[in-house]
Amino acid sequence: MRQKGATAIPRLHKADLHLLAVFMTVAESGGFAAAQVTLNVSQSTISRQIGDLERRLGMRLCQRGRVGFRLTDKGQAVYEACQHLSTALESFRTTVGALRGELIGDLSIGVIDNWATESCYPLAEVLRAFRAKARFVHIQFHTMAPDEIEHAVLDNRVNLGIGVFHRHRPGLLYEALYDDPVELYCGSGHPLFDRDPGELDREDLDAADLVHRAYLSERQVAPLTAELRSTTSAWQIEGIAFLILSGWHLGYLPVSYAERWVMAGRMRMVLPGTFCLNTKIELVIRRGAPLTLVTQTFADILREKTRSLNRERVNGDVR
Fold first, then answer.
1. Do 295 and 103 touch, CB atoms closer than 8 A?
2. Rounded distance, CA 306 to CA 117, Å?
3. Which secondary structure element, helix H or strand E, spans residue 77, and what is its range?
4. Contact 262/193 with Cβ under 8 angstroms?
């Protein structure tokens, strides 16, 4: 029985869905001002729309003013409910499209910054096969650091992620796709660049300056170099490459990613094989989240292509 004085939760109409979408954008942007660019409306309009939504729902969703912006506890709960609603609406859309023999809807992918350019396995092959089956799906492609990918999948900002994840988080499912060897490199102009590998010893390395990978624990992942001095850090592979190319720093890079500079004589491995790490490229999805047909189709193609790559590697067919 409804309590005396309680008001019924309003039925959702098209206008309500728009207000909820505005609220999600504001929450994800961290405030009204930051949401202006995405929504392409004035801050006063956003404020009015959030006020309309609060009146419709009968609760305060966020605090705003001189103290800054933050969601209330109820606002956080409504935001999480909005995420579930958004997923359900997208699932409905793709299901109806499937009944008509079509793949329609949205696909949001978070990918580490160097994966698409690896010579051994370009992401373009996966996208080409997916697009052949899903001509009308809107693809959102995000290049992120590994921890950003995990947060985006957990927050439902991307449907799936692809990357190197050294510490698995609760709430996420990880699936190994293939191994990607990583080696230690120096750049042209570095004191170790022209030294014969047989001449190098530990003292040479102790004098070097290692690029710290800010997205992982060097001590856990690469204990052999964990004690090296480090005056730089980078959140993405590209940043590590820039610092190595400066000629001042050592750093770890995927072998396939560094190949272009090795061939050009601008990088070389430091003691090849000594510091080799076999990192895993993994697919990550949110635990317990039902996949839409669009997301499932992309994941299946990704698995098929990486299985083919692994077979080629076993047979020695990868160039």
1. no
2. 15
3. helix 73-99
4. no
In angstroms, what CA-CA distances link 289 with 156, 160, 179, 285, 314?
A: 9, 11, 26, 8, 34
249: nearest Cα among 272, 223, 267: 267
Kindly state the tokens that stand for 131: 């697009």
- Tell me which residue has tokens 């510490």: 167
Residue 273, both tokens: 């094989």
8 Å CB contact between 165 and 282: yes
The one-letter amino acid code at 270 reads V
Per-position pLDDT tens, the chain of length 319: 344 444 566 677 778 888 888 998 888 888 888 888 888 888 888 889 999 898 988 889 988 777 778 899 999 999 988 888 887 777 777 777 666 666 778 899 999 877 665 555 568 888 999 999 888 888 998 888 888 899 999 888 899 999 888 888 999 999 998 888 899 999 999 989 988 877 777 777 888 889 988 877 777 777 788 788 889 988 888 899 999 999 999 999 988 889 999 999 999 998 888 888 888 889 999 988 778 888 999 999 999 888 876 676 666 654 4
Q: In 131-148, which positions are buried (b, 16+ CB within 10 angstroms) versus exposed (e)?
A: eeebeebeeeeebbbbbb
- DSSP three-state, residue 224: helix
Q: Of 217, 193, 188, 218, nearest to 204 (Cα)?
A: 193
The residue whose two tokens read 């900002």 is 157
Q: What is the DSSP letter of 168?
A: P
φ and ψ of 64, to 5 deg = -145, 155
pTM of the model: 0.64
Which 3-state string (H, E, C) describes 116-148? Answer: HHCCCCCHHHHHHHHHHHCCCCEEEEEEECHHH
